[in-house]
Amino acid sequence: MSEPTTNSPDDVVIQPASPAEADSVIQPASPVQPPVVAGASGGVGTSAVARLLDGRDAGVWRTDIPGPLTMPDVLVAGVSVQSMTQARRVLTLLSQLGGRPLLVVVGDGRGRAPADSRALLTLVQPLVRDVAHLPYTRAWRTCTSPHGLTPPNGRAFRRAVTRARDACALPPLALPDRRR
Q1: Average pLDDT in the chain
Q2: Percent of the chain beyond pLDDT 90?
Q3: Which of 37, 113, 128, 155 has the fewest Cβ atoms nearer than 10 Å?
Q4: What pTM was computed for the model?
Q5: Alpha helix (H) ranges present in the chain?
C-alpha cells in the first residue's frame, strides 16, 4: 500500500482559473485601456461615439468571425426599430456571456423615437449598465469620416456625452461653447 501524500511548503498549489481565464472565447476589456465601442449594426454611429469616448472602434459586434470575442464596454444602436431589435439580440447574448455594456442610442431624425423602439429600449434596460441618448445631428449624416466630426453644442448632446463618459469613468470632454 502506498503512503498518503502530503503537501510540503515547497509544493506549488495551482489555483482554479478565473472564469475569464478559463473561457478563451471571451476576452474582457481592460479597465486601464480605452473603452471598446461596438455597434449593434452598421451605420449607427459607432465610429463617432468611439471618437467622443476616446475609445477603440470595434465596428459591428459579430459572433460569426473566428477567434476570441471582445466584450464591448459600449454598444451603439440607432433609434430605428430594426436597429433596436438587433441591439436587443446583441445585448441578450452579451448578458449570457456576463457583459453589461453602456448602451448609446443615436437619434436618426427629429422628433420622438418610434413607440416600438421605446418599448424595446425598456426591455433591454436590465441588460445594460446605463443608457445615453445622443440626439440627431444633421451634420453627421453627410460626414464620411469620424475624424472630421465636430461635436454639436446643444444641451441634450452635452448631457448625453457627459453621461456616457461618466459611465465609462472618463474625464469630461471639452465641447464647443454654446452659441447664443
Answers
A1: 79
A2: 40
A3: 155
A4: 0.75
A5: 19-22, 46-52, 81-96, 115-124, 138-141, 155-167
Residue type for position 152: P
Q: How far is CA 75 from the centre of its chain?
A: 3
Q: How confident is the model at residue 72 (pLDDT cuts 50, 70, 90)?
A: very high
Residue 102: other Cβ atoms inside 10 A: 24
Give CA–CA dist 140/161, Å, rounded: 15
Measured distance CA(149)–CA(143) in Å, rounded: 7
Residues 6+ apart with CB under 8 A from 30: none
Phi-psi label, residue 98: left if phi above 0, alpha if psi -120 to 50, beta otherwise: left
Within 8 A by CB and 6+ apart from 162, the residues are 172, 173
122-126-129-132 Cα dihedral, nearest 10 degrees: 0
How many CA atoms are closer than 13 Å to the CA of 139, on its beta-carbon side?
Answer: 8
Residue 35: which of 19, 63, 58 has the closest Cα? 58
Residue 5 has pLDDT above 50, yes or no: no
Mapping DSSP to helix (H, G, I), strand (E, B) and coil, where does residue 156 land?
helix
